[in-house]
Amino acid sequence: MFLHQLDQYTVGDIMDRRLIKLREEANSREAINTMISHNLDDIILTDETEKVVAVLTFKDLMKQIRSEEDLTKPLKYLVSQNVIVSTEKAQAIEARNLMRKNHIGRLPVIREEKVVGIVRVNDILNKVYSKIDEMHAALEKILDSLYEGVCVVNPEGTVLLWSKGIEKLYEVNQEEIVGRNLEEFFPTALLLKTLNSKQPIRNVYHSPRPGSYAIISSIPIFIGGEMIAAVSTDRDITETTNLSEELETAKEKLDLLETEVKKINEEQYSFHNVIGKSDIIKEKILEARKVALANSSVLIGGESGTGKEVFARAIHQASGRKGPFVAINCSAIPESLFESEMFGYESGAFTGALNKGKTGKVELANQGTLFLDEIGDMPLYMQAKMLRVLQERQVLRVGGEKSIDIDVRVVSATHRNLETMVMKGTFREDLYYRLNVVYIDLPSLKERKEDIPIFLRRFISEFCEENNLRIPEIDAEVLQVLMNYPWPGNIRELKNTIEHLVIFSKDNVIQKNSLPERILEKKIIDEKQQQPISFDLQENIRNTEISTIKSAMDMADNNKAKAAKIMNIPRSTLYYKLKYYGLKEYL
């Protein structure tokens, strides 16, 4: 079958360009001397036009010479053969077949009637044998580069081939095993069973030595109905098995970690962690707790910075839904990307799309909660698509053809008046009623000023812990300023202000000069504009003292010694004031 490799070559590829040309008028003596001097045993005769007229070998000449006179005769009188020639572009296999058909060992190669080379039988054989060597070397390299180990045995069980892969797997060198019977090394080898049964055996799990694992297959090789060999492929799965065990261990750890993280999140985002003791915030927490247990859509209203996302997360944690909490800010997404962000897209859906596609936020929130913050900023065209998703409980990716079932609880939030937007036609009425099954309106910070000291204590503590700072004391005048400030940015503004106060505190005390300029300026303006509501001095003193004591006690987390220090009064005076004003909740 290797001779078929000659199909790949032309005569020009295999011909020998080393040749001797003599005119037909030359004699035998000249021919013999020329062949000896060039170390060649054939010579080509040409006429005056250099056309080939004969091919003579040294053996041919010796047969023709019987006397001294024959040595001097022109060679043209000694030859009578018809010359068969070929061209450079002819297929090498055609040249071989031509030589076999005419029983000749040499074939001149011509170009434009002139000889340019010669093909000898040895040239063909050398090319075939070199190809066999190349193929054998290539086969060895291929087998050695395979991840699987390969073993080939003859019908008697003698090892003919033992690849590097199987050498490594079984720790037996090629030099040791090739040429010997496989049974000497592996008495229970799968290949031996295949030799006996003449049937293939596939995918058998095997541990050749402790800590090593393999999957083995063996098949018999038949030619003309006769089994001439058997081959086994042994795939080393040691790394895969060990990795699988490691992954299983890692999964157990991950499950444990996920459980712990979930506990942390539940604590961090639970209603228990919502800051505030005011009646109005307690009422809102109670409302949210009730709706959390249902799957109804919730719309949370309120000014920016009032904690709408905190409530949304708490509702999700209390709901017990298994899926994740996925938040998306509708005001932060470019209109052109809204649909792909919300619903995802398939591979190649548009220019710039990821090859593997992308899962949308709605799909990610499956079995969980989708929080649509700033829902009033959602484009009208997306409102229609979102309504359809909520009604049909299915999502279709951009560029996709198959709808995906979803189970999503929607919590929305906005600082806008959606009812006004509905009347103006900038928000869909049907989507508004779909989202507004339960409405929770969060109060601004100025409506719950009694919670400011609690926020102060929490935010100061958190900021100092994050930045490895000592917790500073706060001057009573500063506390009074903060209590009277209207906080248009609500809790978010308060938190940023507290960071400012801690950073610019002096000698670990937050003083009046630590306050941001905008708050100080607002205080000055308020003092100028303020008109006394009552001229009853005793009543004003009473109200001021009660308000200050409550704020200081909340700030100190009911620690009377600390509260007295904040107000710069003796602790005994604080006890007296608490009893005098009937503030029993602080006693």
Automatic annotation (TrEMBL):
It comes from the Bacteria. GO terms for biological process: regulation of DNA-templated transcription. Residues 240-267 form a coiled coil. This is PAS domain S-box-containing protein. InterPro entries: AAA+_ATPase, AAA_lid_NorR, CBS_dom, CBS_dom_sf, Homeodomain-like_sf, HTH_Fis, P-loop_NTPase, PAS. Residues 274-503 form the Sigma-54 factor interaction domain. Residues 135-186 form the PAS domain. It comes from Tindallia californiensis.
